[in-house]
Design a protein that fits this description.
mainly beta, five-stranded parallel β-sheet, 2 helices, eleven-stranded parallel β-sheet, globular, 44% strand
Length: 215
C-alpha cells in the first residue's frame, strides 16, 4: 500500500515589523517584553502619535530589538508605581536601538526610586535622535533620558526638556554615564527646586567628606 503523505501544518509567521498604532498595542508590546528574549531581532515601528493619559501603562520591561519612533510622539506617560529602574523602557539590552522618538510625561516612582530616566531606566543599547519632555524624579541615578548609561550604552543626538531632580548622580541627559554620550542637548532644569537637606553638618565625618561623590 502507498504511504500516506505526511500532514502539513500551517505555522504562524511573525510579522517582520510589529506596528504600534494604539495605546492598547503598546500595552500588548509591554506584556510581550516581560520575556527578555522576545524582542531580540525584532523591529517595532510606531506608526502614529499615542496618548497614554488615563491608561495603566507601566513601562516596557526589557527590550533588545529596534524601536523605530518614526518621529512620532508618545504623550501622557505617567510612571508612578513603586520601585527602581523606571522609564518608558525599564531596560534596553546591549543590541537594542531606539530612534526618532519623542516622549512626554512624568516618571516619578515611589519606593526606592533609583535608576530612573524619561526614556530608559538602564541603557545598555543605543538611544538615537530621541527627546524627552516632562518631569523625572527619584533618588539616585536620575536622568532626563536615561537613569544609567552603562559601558555598552550610547546616547546620541538626543534632547532632554523639562525638570530632572534627585539626590545623587543626577543629570539632564543621564544620571550616571559609563558609556558614550554625544551630540546631545540638555534643556531641562536639574535640581533647581529647593529641598530640605537631611544631612546635618555635625553628623559628617572626615570619611564622609573624603568619599563624597565627585560632580
Amino acid at each position: 500500500a502507498a504511504l500516506a503523505a505526511p500532514a502539513v501544518f500551517a505555522q504562524e509567521v511573525e510579522p517582520a515589523v510589529v506596528e504600534i498604532a494604539t495605546a492598547d498595542q503598546l500595552a500588548a508590546l509591554a506584556r510581550d517584553c516581560r520575556l527578555d528574549s522576545w524582542s531580540r531581532g525584532r523591529t517595532v515601528a510606531l506608526t502614529a502619535d499615542l496618548d497614554l493619559t488615563g491608561s495603566d501603562f507601566g513601562g516596557i520591561p526589557t527590550f533588545g530589538g529596534t524601536f523605530q519612533g518614526n518621529h512620532h510622539t508618545i504623550t501622557g506617560v505617567s510612571l508612578t508605581d513603586q520601585g527602581s529602574v523606571q522609564g518608558l523602557f525599564r531596560y534596553l539590552q546591549q543590541d537594542a536601538l531606539v530612534q526618532d522618538l519623542t516622549v512626554e510625561g512624568t516618571v516619578q516612582p515611589g519606593g526606592s526610586r533609583t535608576t530612573v530616566g524619561g526614556l530608559v531606566g538602564q541603557n545598555a543599547g543605543t538611544l538615537q535622535n530621541c527627546t524627552f519632555r516632562g518631569t523625572v524624579h527619584g533618588t539616585t541615578r536620575i536622568g532626563g533620558l536615561a537613569g544609567s548609561n552603562t559601558v555598552t550604552g550610547t546616547i546620541t543626538g538626543c534632547t532632554a526638556q523639562g525638570s530632572v531632580s534627585g539626590d545623587h548622580f543626577v543629570g539632564g541627559v543621564a544620571g550616571q554615564n559609563d558609556g558614550v554620550i554625544s551630540g546631545c542637548t540638555n534643556e531641562a532644569a536639574v535640581n533647581t527646586a529647593l529641598s530640605e537637606n537631611e544631612v546635618k553638618l555635625e553628623d559628617l565625618t572626615l570619611t564622609d567628606l573624603l568619599t563624597t561623590e565627585r560632580a
